Inverse folding.
C-alpha cells in the first residue's frame, strides 16, 4: 500500500519517463515524431479553443482587472481603517466614560426622585429661616440652623447640602445683624435679655463646628458687643439733641447721660449677673477649701481649680469692660460739658447746670459711676471765665462812661465848711 501511494504521488514527468523506459527501439525512434504531432494537435486545439471561447478570455481579463482594482480599493480602505482605529478607540472610550457618567447621573436622579419630598423640605430651609428672621422668630431660625449643621455634617460631599448650609449661614448672619440693630435702638431689660440669649445661642451654634474654641472668650466678645451697641444707642440719642440753646441742650444732655447710662449698667448687670456673682461665691470659701483634706481624687481638684480660674478671669474681663464703657461715657459727657459751659453766660445758669450735673453724678453713683469729683474743675474754669468776662464788661462800661461823662471841679473842703457855716 505504501509503494502504491508513493507511485500515485509521482508527477506526470516521472510517469512518462517510466513509460519511455519500457519502450522498444522502434518505439523510441518514432517517439519524437509522435510528440511533434501531439504538439501540433495541442496548438491547433488551443487556437480553436481561443477562437471559440475568446469572449471567455476577454471576460476573464476584465474580471481580473476588476478584481485587482477592487483588491487595491480594499487595501486602501483597510489602510484608512487602520489609521482611524486610534480615533475610533478614543471615541469608544469617551462614549464608555460618558455612558458611565450618564448612568451615575441617572442613578442620582432616581435617588433624588425617590427622596423628592425630603429634598424639597431641605431646600426650603433657607427661605423658611429668612421668613422666621423677618418675623422675629429667632428661636425657630436657630433650631433650623442646628438641624442644617447636622445635615451638612452628614452629607458634606453633596453640593446641594453645602448650598443649603451657606444659605442657613446667611440667614443666621442676617438674624445677628437684626439683633444687633435692636441693641442699638431703645430696648427694655426683657428685650435685651431675649436679644442676648439669641446672640449667645447663635455663638454657641458657631462653636459647634470648632471643638477647640474657648467659650469664655466668646462670652467676653458677647459682652463687648453688647456694650458697643448700647454705646451706639447712647451716642445716637445725644446726636438727636438740639444744640442751639445751651441751657436746654445741657439739661437734656445731662438727663440723657443719667437715664441711658443708668439703664445700660442696670441691664448689663442683670443680664450677666450669674457670671459676675459666681467668682465671689467661689472666692468666699477659698480658705476652707485649702484646709480640706487631700484624700479626694486628684483630677477633681484640678477641675475645680480650672473652672474657678476661668470664672475669675471672666469676672475680671467683665468688670473691666463695664468700667471702660462707663469711663468712656463719662469722658464723652465731660467733653460736652466743657464745650457747653462757655456758652452759659450768667452765674445763675452755671449754678443750675452745676446742680443738675451733680444730681446726675449722684444718681449714677448708685450703680458705681459717681463722677462728682470730675465736675469741680470744669465748673471752676467756667466760673473763672464768667467772672473775668463780667469784670471785663464792667471795666469797659466804666471806661466808656468815664470818657463820655462831663466832669465839674469840686470846691475844697475848707471852702465847703465856710459856706456851710455861713448858711
Amino acid at each position: 500500500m505504501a509503494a502504491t501511494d508513493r507511485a500515485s504521488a509521482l508527477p506526470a514527468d516521472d510517469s512518462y519517463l517510466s513509460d519511455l523506459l519500457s519502450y522498444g527501439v522502434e518505439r523510441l525512434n518514432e517517439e519524437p515524431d509522435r510528440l511533434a504531432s501531439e504538439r501540433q494537435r495541442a496548438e491547433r486545439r488551443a487556437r480553436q479553443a481561443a477562437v471559440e471561447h475568446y469572449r471567455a478570455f476577454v471576460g476573464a481579463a476584465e474580471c481580473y482587472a476588476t478584481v485587482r482594482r477592487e483588491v487595491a480599493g480594499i487595501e486602501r480602505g483597510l489602510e484608512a481603517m487602520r489609521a482611524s482605529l486610534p480615533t475610533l478607540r478614543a471615541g469608544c472610550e469617551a462614549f464608555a466614560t460618558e455612558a458611565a457618567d450618564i448612568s451615575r447621573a441617572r442613578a442620582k436622579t432616581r435617588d433624588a426622585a425617590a427622596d423628592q419630598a425630603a429634598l424639597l423640605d431641605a431646600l426650603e430651609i433657607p427661605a423658611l429661616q429668612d421668613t422666621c428672621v423677618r418675623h422675629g422668630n429667632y428661636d425657630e431660625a436657630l433650631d433650623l440652623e442646628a438641624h442644617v449643621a447636622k445635615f451638612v455634617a452628614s452629607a458634606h460631599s453633596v453640593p446641594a447640602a453645602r448650598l443649603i448650609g451657606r444659605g442657613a449661614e446667611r440667614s443666621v448672619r442676617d438674624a445677628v445683624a437684626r439683633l444687633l440693630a435692636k441693641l442699638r435702638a431703645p430696648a427694655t431689660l426683657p428685650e435685651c435679655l431675649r436679644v442676648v440669649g439669641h446672640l449667645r445661642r447663635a455663638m454657641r451654634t458657631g462653636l459647634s463646628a470648632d471643638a477647640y474654641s474657648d467659650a469664655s472668650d466668646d462670652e467676653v466678645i458677647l459682652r463687648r458687643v453688647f456694650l458697643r451697641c448700647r454705646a451706639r444707642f447712647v451716642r445716637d440719642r445725644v446726636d438727636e439733641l438740639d444744640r442751639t440753646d445751651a441751657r436746654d441742650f445741657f439739661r437734656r444732655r445731662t438727663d440723657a447721660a443719667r437715664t441711658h447710662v443708668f439703664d445700660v449698667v442696670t441691664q448689663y448687670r442683670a443680664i450677666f449677673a450669674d457670671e459676675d456673682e459666681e467668682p465671689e461665691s467661689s472666692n468666699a470659701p477659698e480658705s476652707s477649701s485649702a484646709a480640706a483634706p487631700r484624700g479626694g481624687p486628684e483630677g477633681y481638684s484640678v477641675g475645680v481649680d480650672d473652672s474657678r480660674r476661668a470664672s475669675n478671669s471672666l469676672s475680671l474681663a467683665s468688670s473691666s469692660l463695664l468700667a471702660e464703657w462707663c469711663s468712656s461715657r463719662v469722658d464723652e459727657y465731660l467733653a460736652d460739658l466743657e464745650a457747653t459751659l462757655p456758652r452759659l453766660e450768667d452765674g445763675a445758669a452755671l449754678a443750675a447746670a452745676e446742680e443738675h450735673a451733680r444730681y446726675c453724678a449722684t444718681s449714677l453713683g448708685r450703680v458705681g459711676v459717681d463722677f462728682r469729683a470730675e465736675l469741680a474743675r470744669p465748673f471752676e474754669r467756667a466760673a473763672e471765665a464768667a467772672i473775668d468776662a463780667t469784670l471785663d464788661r464792667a471795666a469797659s462800661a466804666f471806661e466808656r462812661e468815664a470818657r463820655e461823662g462831663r466832669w465839674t471841679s469840686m470846691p475844697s473842703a475848707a471852702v465847703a465848711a465856710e459856706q456851710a457855716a455861713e448858711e
Remarks:
- Confidence is low (pLDDT under 50) at residues 1-7, 207-214, 275-307.
- The two ends are 210 Å apart (CA to CA).
